[in-house]
Specification:
Length: 207
């Protein structure tokens, strides 16, 4: 742990340093969005850019760390909101609607869906990170997926479909924007039937 900088209040451990870097990055993102740079964080903490690079090798790595920390908290909120939803269609519709409404005001987590690489390329919504988020979302629900015929592959496909729905509605909410009860009606009509459940594995084998 380096002893200079940090505004005269040196972190006691690497873990505390990381926490303070993430907190500073979160504050900057809240103020100006994901245009945050390593230099901005270093200036906020009164340290050199090299100090921040010691823990995060790039701005994208720091943004992703912020996004994943925020996502963990968001998934806990989602699980609480959806407690008691045990039917796949209803759970998916409300889960996707809640996620869209929450992420519309959260630049940190939205980075998981809308980040652009430094070369100007848009990462795939089916990246490993996005897929992990989608699977975590499904597993936080009270749905007995196996009872509705979902195996791991089917869950991955449902997660991808949900992610694509979230991504599309975040990028273009519609005109006028889909929101509230109307958003849920829209999702119920199109997403609901896709999530309603699959034939049991035994019936698929004999059908």
């Amino acid at each position: 742990m380096r002893s200079h900088g940090w505004g005269g209040n040196t972190p006691a451990s690497d873990e505390e340093a990381i926490e303070r870097i993430l907190n500073a990055a979160d504050a900057i993102i809240a103020a100006r969005g994901s245009s945050m740079r390593i230099a901005d964080v270093a200036r906020e903490l009164a340290v050199t850019r090299q100090t921040v690079y010691r823990y995060f090798p790039s701005t994208d790595a720091l943004l992703m760390a912020c996004a994943m920390r925020s996502a963990d908290g968001f998934l806990d909120q989602l699980a609480g909101h959806l407690r008691g939803y045990r039917e796949p269609a209803a759970a998916m519709v409300e889960g996707v609607a809640f996620t869209i409404e929450a992420l519309a005001h959260d630049d940190t987590i939205e980075f998981l869906f809308n980040q652009r690489g430094r070369g100007g390329l848009v990462p795939s919504i089916t990246s490993d990170t996005a897929r992990a988020f989608g699977r975590a979302l499904l597993h936080r629900l009270d749905v007995d997926w196996d009872a509705y015929g979902y195996d791991d592959l089917a869950l991955d496909r449902l997660a991808e479909f949900g992610l694509r729905s979230i991504h599309s509605l975040l990028l273009d909410p519609g005109s006028p924007p889909h929101q509230g009860a109307e958003l849920r009606d829209f999702l119920s009509q199109w997403l609901g039937p896709a999530a309603a459940g699959l034939p049991s594995r035994s019936s698929r084998r004999t059908g």
